[in-house]
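Entry 14. Two folds queued back to back today. First construct below, sequence then structure tokens.
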Amino acid sequence: MIRTRQLPVTPRIRKTGRWLALLLLVAVVIWLGGLQRFVADIPDNPPPPIQATDAVVVLTGGSGRLDAGLELLDAGHARKLFVSGVYRGVDVTALLRPSRHRPENLQCCIALGYAASNTRENALETADWMQQEGYRSLRLVTANYHMPRSLVEFQRRMPGVVISEYPIVSENVDLARWWRPTTARLLVSEYNKYLIARAFGWALGSTMPSSPAGGS
């Protein structure tokens, strides 16, 4: 039998281990505090559109977003509606079919983007479209829990554009009891993605402009 010799644990190793454990504990506490603040800052209701913007931008991926964008466009709160992240093969008529809006009323003022499959690509696709149109303001329509990360990505790609928020409240996300497993998994995942987006912007040396008030 081959006996292995155990190396003695020196006081220096013990001290290093205690410091690492303490740093890990501090990191967890900071992360939990940030998560709690992230959840607390998620808007509960969409703000009323006080003034018009050049465009309304809808990010696909959740119920109620497109209807809200169409309502804003139909009410004259924007010149055009841009829907980012549409599946290939879908046209405006097909997009409007499930809604109560008639295609002939709004079809002229709707543009579809097919290049985006995630939030970062939504921002890139929208930035290109905004530049082509010469627009300088937009109202962003997406899920309320998705809004913080969307603003990070959109503000990074369009620092000169005024971005107003129009968060859609999801019936499946119970913010009052967000610690329940289904909602908690969703919000923890979104919070981590938000942190990564902020860290990526910091690493690039981006200056993150503060977002305007929701109804501005």
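Second construct, same run, same settings:
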Amino acid sequence: MLSAAVLTSACGPGKVVVEAPTEQPKVVAMNLLSKEGIPLESACVAAGPERCFDAIDDNCNGVIDEGCGIGTGLLQFTLAWGDSAADVDLVLTEPRGGKIFEGNRTSRTGFRLDRDCPGEDGCHGQNIENIYFESGDPPRGKYTLEVKLSDLRGAETPVKVRLGARVGGQVFSAQLELLPGSTTDKKTFTFEI
């Protein structure tokens, strides 16, 4: 809901009505765990302007890779792995059991997978996958995020992947190494909001 603020114009008599931005729902990550014990760190790296396709909040404004042609939202999960030939997949399971992944790019609750590399023409050697919540208040409950090496495609091992996660105003990051094999090709994270 927008609220109106009345300002007096410095250019002469009269009043100017300005619409104040709406407040976003409060979203906080709780019980953040990695099945494999991977530590998560702050993804804010105060390196100046935002660099694209690195899954890091380079300018510390609480948004990952904004202005880079990918979707952002209160919840955003981004993988980046440079120009490796490997196919790495990002899968989000939301509290109601719906999954967002390459084969199901949208959900009824508002999640969208908007980049799936390699394979899309727009990757150009900057592999990235991105799932974000489009608008409104995201569903409350437990989420599961999987990062999986789907196909090595002759890439060097280990495949190094940066995971960036935005949950409300919190931004997390982890450097992952994926190897072919039953226990090393997938990393799993869970959290609740």
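Quick look at the second one. Residues 1-21 have pLDDT under 50 and may be disordered. Residues 25-192 form a domain with the Lipoxygenase-1 fold (CATH 2.60.60).
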